[in-house]
Design brief:
This protein has 279 residues and is α/β, with parallel strands linked by helices. The protein has a domain of 194 residues: 3-Layer(aba) Sandwich (Rossmann fold). It contains ten helices and eight strands. Strands 1, 2, 3, 4, 5, 6, 7 and 8 form an eight-stranded mixed sheet that branches. Helix 2 packs across helix 3. The longest helix is centred in the first third of the chain and has 21 residues. It is globular, with a radius of gyration of 19 Å.
Length: 279
Amino acid sequence: MDRDEYRRTSLENWQTTAPGWERRRAELERFGRPVTDLMLRELDPQPGDTLLELAAGPGDTGFQAAAALGEHGRLISTDFSSEMVEVARRRARELDVRNAEHLVVDAEEIPLADDSVDGVICRFGLMLMADPERALAESRRVVRPGGRLVLAVWGAAERNPWISVAGRIFAQLELAPPPEPGAPGMFVLADHARLSRLLEGAGFEPRRIEDVPVHLDFADVGEYIAGSRQTGGMFARIWRDASEAERDAIRAGLDEGFAPFSVDGGYSLPGQAVVAAAS
């Protein structure tokens, strides 16, 4: 798949799953809380700052930063999915966030002037972009000298069974091709050295790259499937198109793959994110 085709498919996925992300926003925020907390500490938003959030999704990470900006600061909350931008807009109204504006923005073509923001944040977006090098170069362009970039990506597949188990099952059942080396995907930026090289190549100086553990808790495989169908574009497509026999095989595979993580009648699946801070 070429980059343009990937961008089109990715946008369709996020437009379709935006309602599911809105419904499950609180659950997803609990899952990512340790990551968000470290990102905000590294970002260190100050009164009067202008901050840009890329791939903001429902927007909660940026809205927490906005609380520190004061009435003279500004958050620019963006996503390349217009449906996700509307989700964030509704969430801002719910939280009474008044110093945020909402824009549909492709992180690879940021429509802001050079040296116009004090910080950029991007939680779990960069590894899914068609051209992460270009996105980082754009971030470097819009950040003022001395400004900050803080991002989070997912660690290695073996550290994230909450998603990699399903991917392995899909490949075994030939319901999805195995990922191409280097192609956009959940784990493509897991390696600290590669992430550091990308940051340096864009003109940033990495200050910290750190693994952050998370856990996804759910009652049973049925609950996991229901959540994944609402928030995971690939999972939703595969499940929709699968036969009953294939769905039974997926359930059986998940039962087996999640068995080592059984806790008190349910499951607690570990995960590992990578948070990088640069200036």
